[in-house]
Amino acid sequence: MSARVALRERLAAFKGGRFGRARKDVPVRDWVSTGQPARVQGFDQPLTWVVVALLALGLVMVYSASIALPDNPRFARYSQNYFLVRHALSIAMGFVAALIAVQVPMRVWEKYAPWLFVASLLLLVVVLLPFVSKPINGARRWIPLGVLNFQPSELAKLAIALYAANYMVRKMEVKEHFFRAVLPMAVAVGLVGVLLLAEPDMGAFIVIAMIAMGILFLGGVNGRMFFLITAVLVGAFVTMIAFSDWRRERIFAYLNPWDEKYTLGKAYQLSHSLIAFGRGEFFGQGLGSSVEKLHYLPEAHTDFLLAVIGEELGFVGVAAVIFAFFWLARRVFHIGRQAIALDRVFSGLVAQGIGIWIGGQALINMGVNLGVLPTKGLTLPLMSYGGSAVLLNCIALAVVLRVDIENRQLMRGGRA
């Protein structure tokens, strides 16, 4: 009898969308007594619709932010619809890739996680070769593939989430030992960091370090070791800034963007981003009515898309985007917790690592746009222009949906 009660409670929790709390307005059928299986959704529909909404809004705002770019001599050979078409193509490719990725069982992702990490390392080496990569603004971050410029650092974010989760599962019994559990992972992240800083792409390194550290912490690494690693990473970033003149100037410009010395230099983007938010006020100037996108705010369709949203849609639009990302990250973490509760540690850690990636990168991008954090070249996930970023974001969230699908199969009494 107790087994029936426990099973009924688990079904009730699943129908309500949370462990331990069922929705009162949804009747739960006792298929133990009726002999009929409970009818449940096959995947997390609210999560899917929030992702679709962010992609759709991003497409509209990328078009709005880039429509005037052909007036600039640098983009004179492009049509007004060039970035819109390219971004729509990236979303279509991401949709197809997501449909494929969601069919792949998590046991396959776990099996090939180390090899995917090795492949991402090789691509990070290849992108540094002058006859392969395409330099843009002095950085070698992209490999031209015709339909898009592929950025290996985006693949590295997914690879590190899968590899770190796989690593923690393998090292679960020795996670209290620094040299056997933590040091090898620290070396792997350090190797990725060296390759990324050679591009240079410090922003991607910060996100990858954040994903790896988050998974180590959630995987149960000793608290003292975790704080030791955190201190080492913070010290490394401070050292990089202290010994790099242009990085140090960025910090000073961030601290005082209205200083005459920085307003037309290192703080130019930040100052115009703040002006855009100021012009937006509460309800914005109206869709398409941004002035800052008219060659005042550089990279308006990529790193500073939120500033254009703030100017055209105002506080209401920005608040809606912030809430959507908060809800998305929280939902992904919930799926990860469900997987761990079902004794699927790898799947749970992967989902939570992707939640750290999407939520953390969105937080950094928003902080940069709002002047809360120093300027850093990170796009707004799912929304900013960037083919490989959108593609890998879609694949990563498809992996999360796969985790959720397998959770639901197990909770119905089936096999993942």
How would you describe what is shown here?
The chain is an all-alpha fold. It folds into 2 domains: 1-40, no CATH class; 44-411, no CATH class. The protein is 66% helix and 3% strand. The chain is built from 15 helices and 3 strands. The protein has a 3-stranded antiparallel beta sheet with strand order 1-2-3, with no helix packed on it. Strand 2 and strand 3 (149-150) form a beta hairpin. The longest helix has 37 residues, at 305-341. The chain is globular, with a radius of gyration of 23 Å. Belongs to the SEDS family. FtsW subfamily. Its EC number is 2.4.99.28. This is Probable peptidoglycan glycosyltransferase FtsW. It is a multi-pass membrane protein.
Q: Which terms would index this structure?
A:
2 domains; disordered N terminus; 416 residues
